[in-house]
Amino acid sequence: MTTKKLGAGVTRTDRKLMDGRTIRYYDTNGQKREVIDQRNPETQPGIGELRLDVQTNEWVVIAAHRQDRVFLPPKELNPLTASSPGNLTEIPESDYEVVVFDNRSPSLRQPERELKLPRNLDFATPTFPAAGKCEVVCFTSDYESSFKDLTDRQIRTVLEAWRDRVAELSSETYIEYIAPFENRGEEVGVTLSHPHGQIYAYPYLPPRTERMLQVAKSHRERTGRVLQSDLLEREIKDGVRIVSENSEWIAFVPFAARYPFEIHVLPKRSVPDLVALDQTACDAFTPIAREVLSKLDSVFDMKMAYIAAWHQAPVRVGREYLQLHWQITSVRRAPGKLKYLAGSESAFGSFMMDLAPEQSANLLRDAKI
User: Domain span at residue 333?
Assistant: First the structure.
């Protein structure tokens, strides 16, 4: 067992699960985490493959072992709840605030030897092990809760856990990009209903990140300015797409939104990643996060399915070009109607929007919490 003091009065305690995976408890009340995982030992699954799609030079992860992972279990079989007599779960303790543990069925996992993917890709590029990390972040032990329902301290603790994981994963030599995200709702592919998120640490830059980096670098070389700062300046000047703001953060619907409801939440003082946020910005994230997600649920007075993802600078390249932002997207365009990613979007990556970003922003701004 190891412990580590973090910001905001959070203490991290590390323990091992029955198959050797690490579970990390993030606590604010001085809890002692001494319970041992009593489940029968298991062997961790093998590593998958990285295959290159030579038509796009994009990596595809092949992880066939994930076919048998848990899928929408009933509440009484929830593996993310705290353990109790007769019900041993992924969390051995009988209570927890926030926990992060290595995924039991990961798409990416730590390689057995040093790995570095080639920069120059072509038809002869071989297959590589699917190196990386996939972690589960449990926001609360309360099955019925949601991120927006968490207390100020709980949201702040989750933020500290994200920051801690980004810092630690960045030290792994085979990691190039770290993506914390939350999926909520079956409409976006959730397989466990407990309030939780994930962290994927990739050995390459995801395609969208790579494209964003190219554009941001070109903008900097052409203008001498950071693209995200100019984007934020335009949104403040236009005003019509701003949803909410406080002293440190601003939330808006982007000018060229791709989804019926898409919200970008940016720190007003640009930073490359979560680790670079200072104490003031971290503390101010709590109220705007709750407000934005509450507004989203209030638009149609229903629990909206969404994906909330942190975009940040890569670990090793382009850190002066890309900046941190939190992107929340929902595929619901009206009660009983979803925005399907059909032929144009799925086959060709060309998005078509039925709802103007200004309309979406107005609905969100006027939503009664």
Answer: 209-366
Residues 140 and 282 in one domain: no
Are residues 246 and 338 both part of a single domain? yes
Q: Which of these is catalytic: 65, 194, 196, 311? A: 196
245 & 310 share domain: yes
Residue 103 and residue 86: Cα distance in Å, rounded?
Answer: 23
Amino acid of residue 276: A
* Same domain as 214, residue 135: no
CA–CA distance from 85 to each of 3, 34, 39, 88, 96 (Å)? 26, 16, 12, 7, 16
Does residue 149 share a domain with residue 256? no
R_g over Cα of the chain: 21
> 264 with 322, same domain?
yes
Record the pTM. Answer: 0.96
pLDDT in tens, the chain (369 residues): 899 999 999 999 999 999 999 999 999 999 999 999 999 999 988 899 999 999 999 999 999 877 767 777 888 889 999 999 999 999 999 999 999 999 999 999 999 888 989 989 999 999 999 999 999 999 999 999 999 999 999 999 999 999 999 999 999 999 999 999 999 999 998 989 999 999 999 999 999 999 999 999 999 999 999 999 999 999 999 999 999 999 999 999 999 999 999 999 999 999 999 999 999 999 999 999 999 999 999 999 999 999 999 999 999 999 999 999 999 999 999 999 999 899 999 999 999 999 999 999 999 999 998
Q: Same domain for 225 and 194?
A: no
65 has catalytic annotation: no
